[in-house]
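tmp note - UDP-glucose 6-dehydrogenase
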Amino acid sequence: MVKICCIGAGYVGGPTMAVIALKCPKIEVAVVDISVSRIAAWNGDQLPIYEPGLEDVVKQCRGRNLFFSTDIEKHVAEADIVFVSVNTPTKTQGLGAGKAADLTYWESAARMIANVSKSNKIVVEKSTVPVKTAEAIEKILTHNSREIKYQILSNPEFLAEGTAIQDLFNPDRVLIGGRETPEGQKAIQALKDVYAHWVPEDRIITTNLWSAELSKLAANAFLAQRISSVNAMSALCEATGADVTQVSHAIGKDTRIGPRFLNSSVGFGGSCFQKDILNLVYICECNGLTEVANYWKQVIKVNDYQKNRFVNRIVSSMFNTVSGKKIAILGFAFKKDTGDTRETPAIDVCKGLLGDKAKLSIYDPQVTEDQIQRDLSMKRFDWDHPIHLQPMSPPASKQVSVVWDAYQAAKDAHGVCILTEWDEFKTLDYQKIFDNMRKPAYIFDGRNILDVEKLREIGFIVYSIGKPLDPWHKDTLAVA
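out:
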C-alpha cells in the first residue's frame, strides 16, 4: 500500500488529504501536525475548519485510510510521498521584512524529514512558496541524506475557500512541477498516478519546478489584480454617477475578459492574495525588476485604498465622527461559506472605526468571539504563524461586542456595515432593523448584495460601493 503523509493540518492539508483518501481507498493517508488541539479537533465531532462538504468526506475515511496524528516522525518515516503544507508567513524583520516569505517552518520540516527518513521519498511542496524554494529544500535534504534519495515536486493548491471540496473533486487543473531528469519525471508520474484516480489526464499539467512555483504566485496576483481593477472603477463610478455593477456586467460580456472576479467590494482578503503579491514584489526587486515590482505593489495599494475609503465614507456620513456611536458589523470572515478571517478586510475596517472611538457590535455566523478579538489585537502578519506561536487571546475590548444574531447587532445602532456576503444578510427583515436603530439610520453595503432602492424606501441612508450616491453622501466631504 502506498503511504502518503502531509505535514500541516490546516486549510490546505486537511481538505486535500481527506479528498485523496476518499478517492484513493488503497492509499493510506496520514495528516500530522504539532498542534495537539488541532489534531484532536480533526479526530472529533467539531472539525477545526468550516468548509461545506468537508465533514462528510472526513467521516467517510477517518479511521479507514485517513488518520490524523501528532506522531509526525513516525508517519514521515513510513511515507512514500510527503506533502509539506506548513506556514510560510511574511517576514516581519530582517532581510525582506514586510515582503519576503519566511521559510523557517519549511526548513525545519525539511531537516526533520532528512533526520527520520530510512527510505527514498518524494517530497511535495503544497504550501505557496517563493520561486527556487525547491532548490533550497533539495540542498538541505541532499546534504543530510545518508544515501537516501529525494525528489522534490511542486504541487501548488488552487482552492477557493467556501468551495474547496468541490474544487478538489473537480479541479480546473492539477499542476505538478519537477526536475527534468529521469528520476524527476518518475516522481512526477508517481504523483500524477495519485490524482489520476479521479482527475482527467488532460487536467493534470506537468512543468519544471520553477514554472510550477511561479504559476501559483502569478495566478493569485492576476486574480487580485482583477479585484483591485474593478474596485478602482467603483471609486470612479461613485464620482460620476455610473453603477459599477452595470459596468462590470458590460465588460464581463467580453469573452476576452469574462465575468469572474469582477464584483466590487470593500476589498480582497484571505490567506494568499496579499502575501503572494508581496512575495512576488520581493522576488522582482531581488532580480532588479523595479518597474514590475511597482506594478504589483499598486494592486495592494488599491486594496488598502478601498478599505480606507469605506471607513472614511462611514465617518464622514455621520457628521464626521463615530465616537461613542454603535456600529453593527455584519460579517467578519473574508468571504461567505468559510470561517476564515485571515487578512479579511473586516479587520482594517473595524480597526479604522475603533480608531475613531466607535462601539462595534459584530455578528458572523461562522467566526467565534475569541477569533474576532484575537484578529483585532494582532499585529500584521502574526496570523500566519502556527497557532501556538501567535499572541495569546487578549482581554476583550470594551469597544467590541460579539453577538450571535444580526438583529441584536443592529439594535440601537447608528449604522450597519455589510462586510461579508453571507446569503442570510440578503433576506433579513430590514424594516425591523430600521425600526430598532437610531435615526438617521445608515447602511453601508461593502459587498453590493442589498436592494438599495428598497432600503431607501424604508428610510435608510444607503451607501453601496460603486453605486450612484444619494444626496446625503454627495453633501458630505469627499473621501480619499
